[in-house]
What does this fold into?
Amino acid sequence: MIQKPDYNGLYEIAESQAGYFTSSQARKVGFSLERLSSNTKKGRFLRVARGVYRLVRFPSSPHEDLFVAWLRTGQKAVVSHESALSVYDLTDVLPGETHVIVPETASRRRKGIRQHTNQLDPDEITHREGLPVTTVARTISDVSFSGLAEELVQQAIEEALERGLISQDELLLYANRRGGRTKRIIQETLSETLA
It folds into this structure.
């Protein structure tokens, strides 16, 4: 028996993802590849990348590249590192690839996507405009630990504090967890900011 396409089901999936969905998600609610193609030709769906679509009712996200990368790496992936900084608009860095944290079992090769297999606690993940992203504190800790230029990390810390996106206590918690370079940069930036 052929499953009838469930437009409401697809809408519910896409709504929680800022209008984006994968062909795999669409198949689960009854959309064959032919049906996807037909809806795209009729102007209901927009193909934004191979296997990734957007309902045309939803406006394009300024972070469309991040949605594509996230959906391609799986729904357990979380946008992180420099890519998360760009979501929060905390630095001038323009990442050359999209950074995501994925489960250790995830596929490791995806063009233009840098996959990290760090452990994440549930409280280290938040959502911005339908996109799962590491929290500001975790993001700053990750970019500092991974070697982002100190002035860019300091810029992110100062901007996050100024905009009330993070507290000094949260930063110090991550400084103590990571130690080393991360702790030094956070402590130096906080002492300069408070001076």
User: Anything to note?
Assistant: The chain has two domains: 7-55, 64-194. The two ends are 71 Å apart (CA to CA). Strands lie at 20-22, 45-49, 52-55, 78-79, 98-101, 113-116, 125-128, 131-134. Residues 64-194 form one domain.
